[in-house]
Fold this protein.
Amino acid sequence: EEEGAKLLQRAAALPEPAALRLRALAEAARYTEHHASRGVNLQVGVGYLREAPAAMVALGTLGLALPLFDRGEREQALLAAMRERQQGEAQEAALRARAEVTQVLHEVIHSGEILAQVRDHLVPASQETVRLREAALRVGETTVLELLLARRAAAQARGRLRRAESGHTLARARALLLTQALRDSPTGVRP
C-alpha cells in the first residue's frame, strides 16, 4: 500500500506531467504579466534645457494613463484560456500516469486471484471428477462418453491454469519494469 502510494506520486512527477506543469506555470506568469501591463500607467519625468548664452529651462512632466476603453481584455481572455488549457493538460498527464501505475498494480492482484482460483479449485475439482468417473465406469454407473467429457474438461482446466500462470507472470513482469523505471527516473526520492 505505502509503496503503491509512493509509486503514484512518482508517476505524477514523470517528465511529461512535469513539463506540462511547467508550461502551465509559464502561461500563468504570461497572463499575470499581461494583466499588469494593462493597468493604470503613471509617468514622471524631469528635463533640463539650455539655450543661448543665458537661457536655461527646467521641465517637469507628470502623466497618468487610465485604460478606459482598451484594457486588453481580448488578449487577456486568450492568455487565460491558454493558461487553463495548459493546467488541464498537466493534470490530465499526471492522472494518466497514475492510472497506468494503478492499472498495472491492479492487474498483478487480479491475475494472482484468478491463478489462485484456477489452481486451488478448478483443476483439483476437474481431476476429482475424472477420478470419480473412472471409478463409476469400472462399476458400470457411467459411460465412456461421460468419462471422455470429464477428461476433456480436466484438460481444459489445466489449459486455463497455464494461461492464468502466463497472465500472472506477464502482469508481474510489467509491474517490475514499471516500478524499476519509476525508481530509476530522476524525479523525487526513491520509494
User: Anything to note?
Assistant: The first strand starts at residue 41 and ends at 51. The CA atoms of residues 16 and 37 lie 32 Å apart. The mean pLDDT is 83.
